From TrEMBL:
The active site is at H444 (phosphohistidine intermediate). GO terms for biological process: polyphosphate biosynthetic process. It catalyses: [phosphate](n) + ATP = [phosphate](n+1) + ADP. This is Polyphosphate kinase. It comes from Leeuwenhoekiella blandensis (strain CECT 7118 / CCUG 51940 / KCTC 22103 / MED217) (Flavobacterium sp. (strain MED217)). An intermediate of this reaction is the autophosphorylated ppk in which a phosphate is covalently linked to a histidine residue through a N-P bond. InterPro entries: PP_kinase (IPR003414), PP_kinase_C_1 (IPR041108), PP_kinase_middle (IPR024953), PP_kinase_middle_dom_sf (IPR036830), PPK_C_dom2 (IPR025200), PPK_N_dom (IPR025198), PPK_N_dom_sf (IPR036832). Catalyzes the reversible transfer of the terminal phosphate of ATP to form a long-chain polyphosphate (polyP). Pfam families: PP_kinase (PF02503), PP_kinase_C (PF13090), PP_kinase_C_1 (PF17941), PP_kinase_N (PF13089). The lineage of its organism: Bacteria, Pseudomonadati, Bacteroidota, Flavobacteriia, Flavobacteriales. Belongs to the polyphosphate kinase 1 (PPK1) family. ATP binds at N55, Y477, R573, H601.
Length: 694
């Protein structure tokens, strides 16, 4: 497609940047593409529907809610949002989401049809034909569902009880002949029960019933005390504003304030109302009035089922042929988990790339530090922890062994606040020193530094990562972790922890690039260096791999580099406000996005042509929040072998022609097509590391 023709249809701002929210919705469309892709195993396709739905829930709770606040404040918000005024943007978002929801319903129908061909039937309440199923459903309802069921009868006079955020409800309408007014009720789908109920096999076939339909099957027993001739059930769901409003009460601890604010989400303003599109208009009008849904809320007609995020937990039924083949995480070449980590790191830096490598190296390092009598201090930043965290256990173990353990824990990690507060209290009780962030800044860096007594001196060891120290997400998020004993890097890391302790003092760093104080200008200089090379007759080359890019100022710098003749290749998984390939603005910028089995999460920056590269890994995306409002660490790679390893794995990703989408002004998420042999980068990366072991 000719980008120049596309650009001619856009306004001045639109022709230079893609709006952040619209770009995010296009990223989620790529997730939905995976659900539609017939080369993806069937059950995995359903799970991608779940990921798509979960992403959308979080988008409305945060991004849509933010735009809505701007509208309700009577402002246009162009400066904050870019491209569109806030009210225009709300309208565009709703239109796109309605279209995507319709597409997702068609995809689910297609998947369910293919499951039938595999002998797997997802049946509704009117499709129960076998006596053993009827008996099982009634028994399951009586024993498991009925005791957990919350049922609310509605009328005009009764104030509606609080509708739980993101819980799914069945709206019950009971009608009796001769009566003008129906009886309305709400049934809350019990979230503590699995959404999918596996029924007994019949003739070798598998049968599953969604919990909603199992309740529908038993409606007569729930509402037996009412007189009605007709009963129907339609699902609804509300999404509430999830932005935190922290009190300024100086008499309360930060944990108390945050806990109250998280609790306050339960009563926050609604921002989205999703309903079964077959619900009758009178029932819908009654609900909207009762719920106080306003014109600025997004009202989305959907399918029979909501909370489709539950599809992420669709039962596997032992059908490994309908799932991705499991790949065992690999060891790192030359390092056994039976070795002393300190001894190995003292000899040479090494790189862990999860999930291709096992996350166990991080746990092993911390556990060894917890037991080693020579280790005196452990300092670490924590952003998101697994529900059952071996990292937290190792740190508590270290404190019990008399180590001085300092944890900078970010309690405001969105949607992980409660989990982090729970671990914070537990670690504090065990003698771990906690630091709760920096005023006005989130601490998003992922770093650790350990001091060990070796003879008459303290020697530092540590690791720096692009992702969270979370054993669960490490199975599905791709992330680099550099283990090092480099004195210069670890000296800078120690300065960073001093800043956490005394953040009124801004340190200078010789090697690490630290946000918010130095990152923006450092990245500008690195881009400028490539421009200077071109102007002096050389070649300029920039390669980036990020989750998101939305800062207009840094985008303008890249446009200037492109105009000067610098070749820029970018792999951006999610939001990207930059428009590549536009003559006169960005013709030297190429951009792809990869969505596949694993979630692409590392941030990598490579400046310079082959043989003269400067390579960095980072916790930071190129978004305003990362550059200006968060503490982030970008680390140079000095070890030549590791530098080459990162370049190699970047190149594998860049050459993907199976799961790579070319991002253009058209925003059509077209798969990259070329004459090269098929290369699926995530599979090829695993093979790359497997070959290293041979």
């Amino acid at each position: 497609m000719d980008n120049r023709l596309n650009m001619a249809t856009l306004g001045a701002d639109e022709s230079r940047y893609i709006n952040r929210e619209i770009s995010w919705l296009q990223f989620n469309a790529r997730v939905l593409q995976e659900a539609a892709d017939e080369s993806v195993p069937l059950i995995e396709r359903l799970r991608f529907v779940g990921i798509f739905s979960n992403n959308l829930d979080e988008f409305f709770k945060v991004r849509y809610a933010t735009v809505k606040r701007i509208v309700e404040a009577g402002k246009k918000g162009r400066k904050a949002l870019g491209v569109y005024a806030a009210d225009e943007l709300l309208e565009k978002i709703t239109k796109i989401v309605i279209q995507q929801q319709e597409e997702s319903l068609n995809i689910i129908d297609d998947i369910l049809q293919h499951l039938k061909e595999e002998g797997i039937y997802v049946i509704k309440e009117n499709e129960v034909h076998f006596p053993e199923h009827s008996e099982y459903i009634k028994s399951f309802f009586t024993e498991k569902v009925s005791p957990a069921l919350v049922t609310i009868v509605l009328n005009d006079d009764l104030e509606l009880p609080r509708i739980q955020d993101l819980e799914a409800y069945l709206t019950i309408t009971m009608k009796k002949k001769g009566s003008k007014k129906p009886i309305y009720a709400l049934v809350e789908i019990p979230s503590e029960l699995d959404r999918f109920v596996v029924l007994p096999q019949v003739d070798g076939n598998d049968y599953i019933m969604i919990l909603d339909d199992l309740i529908r099957y038993n409606l007569e027993s729930v509402f037996s005390i009412f007189e009605y001739d007709e009963i129907s059930a339609h699902m609804i769901k509300i999404t509430r504003d999830a932005e935190l409003d922290l009190e300024s009460d100086l008499g309360k601890s930060f944990i108390e304030k945050l806990s109250k604010s998280v609790k306050g989400r339960e009563d926050a303003e609604p921002v989205r109302f999703v309903h079964d599109q077959t619900i009758d208009s009178d029932t819908l009008a009654f609900l909207l009035k009762k719920l106080g849904i306003e014109y600025t809320d997004s009202i989305i007609p959907g399918g029979r089922y909501h909370n489709r995020k539950d599809y992420m937990g669709f039962p596997s039924l032992g059908r490994n042929d309908l799932l991705y083949a499991k790949q065992k995480p690999l060891p790192i070449k030359g390092i056994s988990l039976n070795d002393s980590m300190f001894k190995k790191v003292a000899e040479k830096d090494f790189l862990q790339y999860t999930p291709y490598h096992t996350f166990a190296y991080v746990i092993k390092f911390l556990r060894e530090a917890a037991l080693d009598p020579k280790v005196k201090t452990i300092k670490i930043t924590i952003y998101r922890l697994a529900k059952l965290s071996h990292v937290a256990s190792a740190l508590i173990n270290a404190a019990k062994n008399g180590k001085e353990v300092t944890v900078q824990i970010e309690l405001r990690a969105r949607f992980d606040e409660e989990s982090n507060m729970r671990y914070a209290n537990k670690m504090q009780d065990e003698g771990v020193k906690l630091i709760f962030g920096v005023p006005g800044l989130k601490v998003h860096s992922k770093v650790c530094v350990i001091e060990r007594q070796e003879g008459s001196r303290l020697k530092r060891y540590g690791f720096i990562s692009t992702g969270n120290f979370n054993g669960m997400t490490a199975r599905i998020y791709t992330d680099y972790t550099l283990f090092t004993a480099n004195k210069q890097i670890l000296k800078d890391l120690s300065k960073l922890f001093n800043f956490f302790d005394t953040n009124y003092i801004v340190n200078t760093y010789q090697h690490l690039v630290i946000s918010p104080h130095y990152a923006r200008n450092t990245f500008y200089k690195l881009i400028e260096n490539e421009i200077k090379k071109v102007k002096s007759g050389g070649k300029g080359y920039i390669r980036l791999k990020l989750n998101s890019m939305s800062n207009y100022a840094i985008i303008d710098k890249l446009y200037a580099a492109s105009a000067a003749g610098v070749q820029i290749d970018m792999i951006i998984r999610g939001v990207c406000c930059l428009i590549p390939g536009v003559e006169g603005m960005s013709e030297n910028i190429r951009l792809i996005s990869i969505v596949d089995k694993f979630l692409e999460h590392p941030r990598v920056m490579i400046f310079g042509e082959e043989g003269d590269e400067k390579v960095f890994i980072s916790s930071s995306d190129w978004m305003t929040r990362n550059l200006d409002n968060r503490v982030e660490v970008t680390c140079p790679i000095y070890d030549e072998d590791i530098k080459q390893e990162i370049i190699d794995t970047y190149t594998i990703c860049w050459n993907d022609n199976v799961k790579a989408r070319e991002i253009t002004a058209a925003q059509d998420n077209a798969y990259r097509k070329n004459d090269e042999a098929p290369l699926r980068s995530q599979f090829a990366t695993y093979d790359y590391y497997l070959n290293k072991l041979n």
